[in-house]
Write a structure and sequence with these properties.
Mean pLDDT: 93
Number of helices: 4
Order of helices and strands: HHHH
Strand content: under 5%
Shape: flat
Helix content: 55-70%
Largest sheet: none
């Protein structure tokens, strides 16, 4: 039987990987800032901003909520809508 980790133990185990992912995200935003052109109206950028805001909350189930930000709403007609036979 697996024992449940304490919050300090989870942070100890996950911190370096979490830090690396945050740094990678920051670097990606820096590259966007330095690149030519503009993406201010791009809906993907809005999705990222919404996901980052959600990550700052303390509500449970953040992973599922973030996934839903980037997911399509289910449609029973998805095959026709996506042109899949």
């Amino acid at each position: 039987m697996q024992t449940k980790l304490t919050a300090p133990a989870v942070l100890e185990r996950e911190f370096l990987e979490m830090r690396a992912k945050v740094l990678q995200l920051a670097a990606s935003f820096d590259r966007l800032d330095r690149a030519e052109g503009a993406v201010a109206g791009d809906s993907r950028l809005a999705q990222l901003a919404q996901a980052i805001q959600l990550l700052q909350s303390e509500q449970p189930g953040r992973a599922e909520e973030v996934q839903m930000i980037f997911s399509r709403t289910f449609s029973p007609d998805w095959r026709d809508e996506l042109g899949v036979g």
